[in-house]
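Hey, I was hoping to borrow your eyes for a little while. I'm sending you its amino acid sequence along with the backbone structure tokens. Take your time with it, there's no hurry, and the full record follows here.
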Amino acid sequence: MSPSRDRRPVPERPPTPPEFRILLVLARQQAHGYAILRELEELGGDGSRLGPATLYRSLQGLLERGWIVESGSLGVDERRRTYEITAQGRAMARAEAIRLQALIQFAKASDLLGKKNGVREGLA
């Protein structure tokens, strides 16, 4: 079958790491951009701080794919856009969490997270 006639659906790409972290925050509660940044700082701890440009670019991508929606304001400031996760966004975040969990299991089985810290005796 020629590529132009192949009608198989193209699977949606998984969320990027910043998008996934945003989905994790919104899976807990709806939030505006600054609140998302604060939550991510608490969640992070790994030095992968999100800047405002990355946050808003990621939010725009999540909106375009229908994984989040604007839900109005929370009464704090009418100008702040508040976001919430959609059912599709929750499903994508869950699929990504399962994928990452499988990778962690593989890392554990490879002894990358064990007592040896991934260094084989006699090779270090």
